[in-house]
Amino acid sequence: MPANLPPRSLTVRTLAGIAGAIAIVAIGLLANNVVREMQILQSARAGSAQWSLAQAEVEFLDFAHAVSTFDEPPTTIKRRFDVFYSRIQTIEIAKVYQVLREDPSFATHLAHAHAFLDDAVPIIDLHDPEFSAQKDALRAMVDDARTTMRELSNSSIGIFAEKADAQREAIASTVRRLVTAMLVLIGALATSVIYLNRLNILNIQRQRGQEETVTRMNTVIETSLDGIIVSDDAGRIIEFSKAAENIFGYTADEAIGRDVVSLIIPRDQRNAHRVDMDRLTGGGTMQVINAGRMRIDAMRKDGSVFPVELSIQTAKRHNTRIYVAYLRDLVQSVAAEQELVMARDAALAGEKLKTDFLATMSHEIRTPLNGLLGNLALMKETRLSPPQDRYIQNMDTSGRLLMNHISDVLDITRYEAGKLPICIVPMNISILMQDIIDNQSAMAQTSNTTLSWHWIGQPRDWVMSDPDRVQLVLINVISNAVKFTNGGEVCVTAEVLASNDHTRICVRDTGPGMSPELTRHVFDDFVTGNPAYNREVGGTGLGLSIAKRFVKALGGTITVDTALGQGSVFEVTFPMPVAEKPVDDYAMPTAPEQPQHPLDILVIEDNDINRILAREMLENAGHTVSEAHNGETGVSVARNIRFDLIFMDISMPVMDGRTAARLIRQGHGKSANTPIVALTAHALPADLDSFVADGMVAALTKPLTKAGLLDVLHKVTNVPELCNTTTPYQSPAYAKLTKRFIAETDSFVGWVQTPDLPLSDIADQAHKAAGSASTFQVPDFAEHLSAIAIAARANDTAAVTAGLATLPQDWDTAKKGLGAQD
């Protein structure tokens, strides 16, 4: 029998044992009762109680006959009386007649018989002559007793009959109980046999299962790639798997019986491990027991130390505690991990390089664009001939198109960084749609295309969404349809879906459609269509990919259904819950006709051209402007003078804008609480967030425009835009700036030809000169300088040398253009 039976089996076995014991005891008692009853019956037959009573009556009758005839000698008659007398005495005292004596009727008759004897004894005791003389009296007494003896015999017969019936019934009942008990015992024995047979089968199956489990475990242990070491409570090894042999270099025979700490733990760590083992032996605990996987150092047979992953579990064997350690060689894993880390670092470095490149290019491109678009905005306010006005408008359009391309790339970067800002506000989708249609109508007219839009079903004007993102998505999708449709129709529809919180906008065109291959990639980056399209239309191939990113960021979907020669249908679905119409109805504050509350503004900018351009725009708006050419100077000025607003460039020598902003905020100067607005070409999300963390309240992305400056003024200071029609070109300021630019650039071109100049200095000065060149509308020269600056930052000495070789000639050409402007 197994030592560890399940509780149910133990209960069944206990109950079966109890039932069997009860059955055995019952059978023993019943058998004893049957034997006793049989002995009683046997004893009754041996005593011949019933025969004795009948014989007593016979003897009485013999005596009565002798008395009646009196033909026998007196001695014979007396002897017959003595026999009858002794028979009655026996009936009165024998145990066998106890049952008869307890019967009232029998007891009465027996008493009468005894009385007869008592009365007859005196006569029987007389001498023969006297006895004979009393024969008549004796004969009368005998006649009186005759009835008594008959009744005595008859009553005994009835009593004995009843007693015999009762005994037979008792024996029958006892036999029945005995049979029942034997059947119960037989049933219990049969149940026990069946149960024991089942236990035997279960034990055989359990033994077979245990053998199979042991076989499997041994197979697992022997084939496991992880080493398995089993040790006892004292730390002695009792099992050492094949994998452990391969890992540590010991054979199982060499390892078994040895101390596990001295065998596989490096020498400099053994004391700590032995302290843990001693604490464990003393009844304490080890932190590594049942603590999951952990990494430690182990030692091979040759003494080399290597990393392993260790997991220790406890178990019991023969009432003693054992420890099972699973060890995995991590040499290859650590090497692979290091390769992954290196690959990750390389990927992160590449990502950072890409981000830095985008930030740098944003700065490099936006800085000259700042000068270009800013000066164009100022020139628009001067007296221009119609051709000049047209040229300036074309230049402004081209510049803004370039700015849009830059913004597209930066938007992708924001999205991939997971920092695309979403601002959900109430918006009028109908007004937004009409503005987009109006914006694209001119392009549609140039291609003789009809452009229209309308609601399907009940209109819903005011909804909750991000108007800027929705506008960009719809402009990209609609402009794409207009661009590829020539002499056809573009129809835009808006519809509130049954879900009641989504709006679907469909853009259908009658253009050439797309092939299945192009359809699969139409939302990918830089997909511009097939070559036939490329000959007729342009674009960067980013519009639809950016649109899809923005739609996804807003929680919507965008799909296309198209076929070659059958046009295209773009469906854009936005979550747009209904919104209440704002009180201001999106009306912007109107500018007062007269200046109000001029501001004292500090502009901290290292680029002279950009600094002067910002000053001219702000002064034209009626404000007072102070300047600082680097962050350190700006901090000093802000400490001593209280300004209403500070414009802070980010990339500056001596001290950058972020450091300057922190120092102004942390100091106790007069402008410590003045709003600071970042001026930067670095438009990445992480940069904008860091500017706010440094204490700046807003960021103005270059190129600077008058509208942008005034909008920031309104938002930051709550001061309406101040109007002034004066321009820098109505004063000699522009001419002075031009002369200064030429002088500074002459100096730079001469200085940069000096041998062995540090590339970092060349990069900084070339970048600064490029910004000024862009502002003064010499784009070829500005591009040349930007290329030199980029090559210098990349430590590309050959490219820098090549660029510097042609720089004087390009500068001479640029100066001639500046002379023509004058």
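^ that was protein a. below is b, sequence first then the tokens
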Amino acid sequence: MTSILKKQFFTTVTICLILSACGGGASDAGTGSSSTGSTSTPTSTPTVTGSTPTVTGSTPVGTGSTPTGTGSTPTNGSVAPSTGWANVKMGGGGYVPGVIYHPTVANLRYARTDVAGVYRWDNGNSMWTALTDGFGRPDGSNEGAESMALDPTNANKVYMTTSMSVSYGNGRFYYSSNQGNSWNYVGLPFPVGSNNQGRAIGERLMVDPNLPSTLFYASRTAGLWKSTNYGMNWSQLASLSPYVMTANDITSSNGGSPVGVEFVVFDTTVPTTGFTPTGNPTQTIYVGIAPDYKGLAGLSSYLYKSTDGGATWTAVATPSAVTSAIGSNQVHIPHLARAADGMFYVPFTTGSGPGSSAPSFLYKFDGKNWTQLISSGSGYYGGIGGLSVYGTGSTTKIAFGVSDTWGDAGWVQIVMRSADGGQTWAEIGRSGDSNGSHNYHDASGTTGAASPSYWGWIDDLKIDPFNPNHVSYVTGGGVWSTSEAFSTSTPHWTVDVNGIEEMVNLDMMAPPPGASYILASGHGDTGIYVHTSLTAAPTRSPNVGASPLWSGGNGTGIDMAWNNPAYIAAVGTFTTSKGAYSTDSGVTWTNFPTLPPSASASGDESKVAVTADGSNVIWAVAGKVPYYTTNNGASWTATNLPTPAVAYHIAADRKNPLKVYAYEHGGNWWYPANSGKFYYSKDGGHTFTASSQTWNPNGNGMTDLAVNPFTEGDVWLADANNLWHSVDSGATWTKLTAMATVGAEFTNVHGAIKVALGVPAAGSAYSAAIYLVGTINGKDGVYRSDDQGITWIRIDDDNHRYGGVARIVADTSVYGRVFLAGRGMNYNY
């Protein structure tokens, strides 16, 4: 899933139900202990050694006590007992660039996402198991996996490379000996970009099946790399090319997303049963070359072949029909599929994806000769994405996905199939159709039944090596699968996302007790949702239905009237801003008839606040003066707030409908700029007065503002360094000192970044439970205080870190229930 915003910092939601507390919890799958070690940084030679411990998918790195704070002098406390974490059910969402099947173990497959970790299929429970939920804030940029590889001789070994963008510097190589239940890593001497363009291309990382200690990697910026000790050390194969892209090369390549070397394929057959490795390196290897690296490295072709294990390479000439139709600067080979008889099936497409375009071609290649099988305009329209084959000779089964389709398909993505080696073709599936099913897809098993219209980019597709009727493909909304791919002309496809929740969260709010819903949320690309259940996908939204009010876009802000929670206001963007309101708890929606000038001129993220009685809606657009309306958007009036660097944190007092609060954090989205300022209004958000207090400047994503929903004028502020409290509507402030001033995501970010208030514990002297995302006694985590911040207890654990918590909202009806939005993942509780 992509977004017009910075997706690599986005979030999805987890919820912790803490009847007494939250933390710990059972392992997702398997057992075992985590390894430790050390890491070293390469100097003049492109080699990395050592290993570094990281948090695990289901096995904690450490156990024991966790410190808490008491007043200004922190003291030690204990980790609260767990009652478990769970996903808020959205039914998928988010781009899954790759699905990887184990070649010799049935029902063992993995899914890699661009920003939300990796998953392993649990066949017994028919769901995906998250393997990287234990990655915390320091590891958050490694929640995206650019490539994964499996050892065909050892089902327990799995490898992946991580880092969301080449702009972050060198990536990591993670390795696991227990199917991803725990991980260690070494640093890589080259960048990795799981959320860059072309992220479904590959696989880039491959294990030599005949000598599994040898791994190859097709890098984006630095050519081809090889390890001979299970990935612990890496050396560049200068035999292909020694060229390493410069900073200027990277910036100018594919919009800052260089593609480089695209994939590695070993020319050897791995049968599903009876495979015995030779113990010697595979000699014949193919690699794909993207146009950017081809030009910079002075290479002559898009496909190279080695017959001596990579010591030397020979260019494989591209069919002239391909280069003349596509053009030399746009030819990409997204995947190379090898059949059991040694025949290669090679797609040529325009652009790197996501969503490659026409012209496109599919050829077969026997090592010397090319034979064209099909091309765009002769049975399908658009670019070829995913490709997979099964069988041999004239009965070879082939399936491929088509992205960016047009013509009679009406810009939908389709799946094509051949059961005779490419002689004849038929369409067997569609994604993103206006009906959501188009006679193929359904969630219930009935042909033509309505189902989610997950759109975008069939850029990877796999035929199960143990069952050719079982085919899975990826989209911007997750994974679809069928068990009838070659047994019927109209297979049933189902949404295969149980356990994968990657719908990126941008905002959320919890209503008061007695509301007809539990939670409301805003998401990147998919808009606004109102949740009446935590275990079933939401249906209340301006983005769903036969004629949705909003078609796509980001839902960036949502709020309700505390005294009448049926009234909800929501704002979002899709190139330009949009806003709507509901008077029936999100069942139906009405667009604001007009937009404030600041919104109509902006497509950036914005926030919204609704006064307690619903009489005023205040819309804070990024980089613009906030406006308010008293007539559901028929007209808008500017507030007197100054123009912020980005959007204000804005909140309405839940007890007094005249009070509204705004916090300008003094930075852009992620970095500091000027001192933070707080403003309060006593006339429903029309005019504001500045507090005399100032705060350290920090980015929007590292700061927060929350009100105590049970007490008037009780406001809390997290400025990324500390937690602050006001009991007089923000006129004066007290700084809490339990937060430790240590680095978190960036060197300028410290002890308190997110705060929320919910229903208090029984008998509590303070009117709310306080939840904090921050650092206490040197430990980054999620904490709760039941005594107004005097003492704290950690409520998350080392298995549930979600790449760092980016948003937090507390339930106002159930004590201990808190909703977390992890970076790149959906909600959890």
